[in-house]
Amino acid sequence: MSDAQPVVEALGIHKVFGDLEVLKGIDLKVNPQDLVFIIGPSGSGKSTLLRCCNLLEHPTKGVVRVVGEEITAKGVDINRVRQHIGMVFQNFNLYPHMSALANVTLALRKVKNIQRSQADEMAHRALTRVGLDDKATSYPNELSGGQQQRVAIARAIAMEPDVVLFDEPTSALDPELVGSVLGVMRELRESGMTMVVVSHEMRFAEEAADRVLFMDEGVVVEEGSPEQVFRNSQHERTRSFLSRVTEH
After folding, report:
1. Is the pTM for the entire model greater than 0.90?
2. What's the CA gap between 161 and 218, in Å, rounded?
3. DSSP code string of 105-173
4. CB neighbours (10 Å) of residue 67?
5. What is the DSSP string of 33-55?
6. CA pair distance 190, 142, nearest whole angstrom
């Protein structure tokens, strides 16, 4: 599908916070049904790049296009554009006073103006996909961390976005809960969902990604297939990072 229009295209992305240049001219292209994995040490700019893709952070310089529309252009209705972009955060970001079902239906009703009965139906479908429809009436504090993250994924996919961005989706979870979240992500990948994932789950990246980007100090040091990056990396910096994170 490489001839298709990219779902996400970021060109020459710079991001400066005060005196700190976090991103130094990053290019990223995500094609339909791609799973792109972004790896690298803490502070390398991975999450900032992800947040620039849906304007949670505005690039200091550069262009971002989502399904062909330049979202960094002046006057763009970013709330409309964000309907195309699902986002799954490290710390779930669920509303504690709302049930799992209500958390999933909120954006459907408020952003897409879908009637409650239809929104409930779509939410139940999304919760079923993540294996949690039996928890629809439960509140976040009644769910494990892994279940809360799966509700957050259901919330993202219920909007039927063109791409889902995952920002460290397992890093706040106890190790024994990680597998359930990765299982859902694997199912989404097999169903053809376009995904960009920032994560330290190297085994998952090696098994499931179409393309891996290794970032360090605000630049993409190396990019390629999992085989290329994990087994035949061209850069000493990549090899050094991988030897530290995969030795356990």
Report:
1. yes
2. 28
3. HHHHHHTS---HHHHHHHHHHHHHHTT-GGGTT--GGGS-HHHHHHHHHHHHHHT--SEEEEESTTTTS
4. 18
5. T-EEEEE--TTSSHHHHHHHTTT
6. 30
Share of the chain above pLDDT 70, in %: 98
Structure tokens at 109: 């009703």
* Angular region, 226: left φ>0, alpha ψ -120 to 50, beta rest: alpha
> Which amino acid is residue 143, in one-letter code?
L
Q: How far apart are CA 47 and CA 51, in angstroms?
A: 6
Whole-number Cα distances in Å, 91 to 94, 123, 138, 140, 145: 8, 21, 18, 12, 9
Phi, psi of 74 (to 5 degrees): -65, 140
Residue whose tokens read 């792109």: 36
Residue 188 amino acid letter: L
pLDDT tens per residue across span 47-75: 999 999 999 999 999 999 999 999 999 99
Across the beta sheet with 61-66, what order do the strands follow? 20-30, 8-17, 61-66, 69-70
Q: Which two tokens stand for residue 150?
A: 């799966």
Sequence letter at residue 134: D
Look at residue 1 in the predicted model and tell me its pLDDT: 42
Cβ proximity of 104 and 158 under 8 Å: yes
CA-closest candidate to residue 86, choices 149, 172, 160: 160
**In angstroms, rounded to a whole number, what is the distance separating the alpha carbons of residues 149 and 115?**
25
